[in-house]
Automatic annotation (TrEMBL):
Cofactors demanded by this protein: [3Fe-4S] cluster
Superkingdom, natural source: Bacteria
Protein name per its UniProtKB record: Ferredoxin
InterPro entries listed in its UniProt record: 3Fe4S_ferredoxin, Fe-S_cluster_ET
Coiled coil: none
SUPFAM superfamilies: 4Fe-4S ferredoxins
Function of the molecule: Ferredoxins are iron-sulfur proteins that transfer electrons in a wide variety of metabolic reactions.
Record keywords, A-Z: 3Fe-4S, Electron transport, Iron, Iron-sulfur, Metal-binding, Transport
Organism (species): Streptomyces wedmorensis
Pfam families: Fer4_13
Keyword presence, Metal-binding: yes
UniProt keyword Metal-binding, yes or no: yes
Length: 74
């Protein structure tokens, strides 16, 4: 499971750190630290944290699989 956080979008509301402290932590008032390769057992907490982000800065499994080409596209 891969996680990506758009740190330009993140505003430091810390909802993710509250809901999934094993994955997300705040360093100071604004800097977010996170584990980009979280354990699969944390998927439910991670989904809750991503959904709770007011600016939708958390992407789960965003980089796991390459996009497939659409048949007929060149």
């Amino acid at each position: 499971m891969s996680i990506a956080v758009d740190l330009n979008r993140c505003q430091g509301y810390a909802q993710c750190a509250f809901l999934a402290p094993e994955i997300f932590t705040m360093h100071g008032d604004e800097a977010l630290l996170y584990d980009p390769d979280a354990d699969e057992a944390q998927r439910e907490k991670l989904a809750q944290a991503a959904a709770a982000c007011p600016v939708q800065a958390i992407l789960v499994d965003a980089v796991d699989e390459p996009a497939e080409a659409v048949p007929g596209d060149r």
